[in-house]
Amino acid sequence: MNIARTLAATALLLICASSHAARPTSIVFETLAETKEGTPYARFSVKCDDGRSVPLTAWDGRRKWCLGDSGSGGCEKRQISAAKTACMTSATSAHPTQEERTFAYSR
After folding, report:
1. How far apart are CA 107 and CA 78, in angstroms?
2. 36 is in which domain, residue-wise?
């Protein structure tokens, strides 16, 4: 009986822990840009429910979505997948400074 309770409590804790991961609340288009080589891309800003704003770029006619301003690493095929990854990645990094929080919540 104690083993069953322990397993149930562990499962419940794992489910609760995963539900507290940062999630995207909005994806906002910022600008169109080009690399030095002339490759066009679009820049977006992903706002997460933990108050962070994370950069996201779209490449190859918005068929490739990447974290940050480079099209090389951390890319996904779907916008929402890239946004979720961006928020989860930003949640594991250091907490934002007060100035970043103020900027993220400004309208």
Report:
1. 27
2. 22-105
Q: How far apart are CA 62 and CA 60, in angstroms?
A: 5
Mean model confidence pLDDT for the chain: 78
Q: Give the model confidence (pLDDT) of 18-56 as tens digits.
A: 556 789 999 999 999 999 999 999 999 999 998 889 999
Element (H, E) at 107: none
Q: How many domains does the chain have?
A: 1
Residue 79 CA, distance from chain mean position? 10
Q: Is residue 3 part of a domain?
A: no
Is residue 9, in this structure, part of any structural domain at all? no
DSSP3 helix / strand / coil % (the chain, rounded to 5) = 35, 30, 30
How far apart are alpha carbons 26 and 83 in whole angstroms? 9
**pTM assigned to the model:** 0.64
State how far the alpha carbon of 54 is from the alpha carbons of 2, 47, 63, 64, in Å.
44, 6, 19, 17
Confirm whether 5 is domain-assigned: no
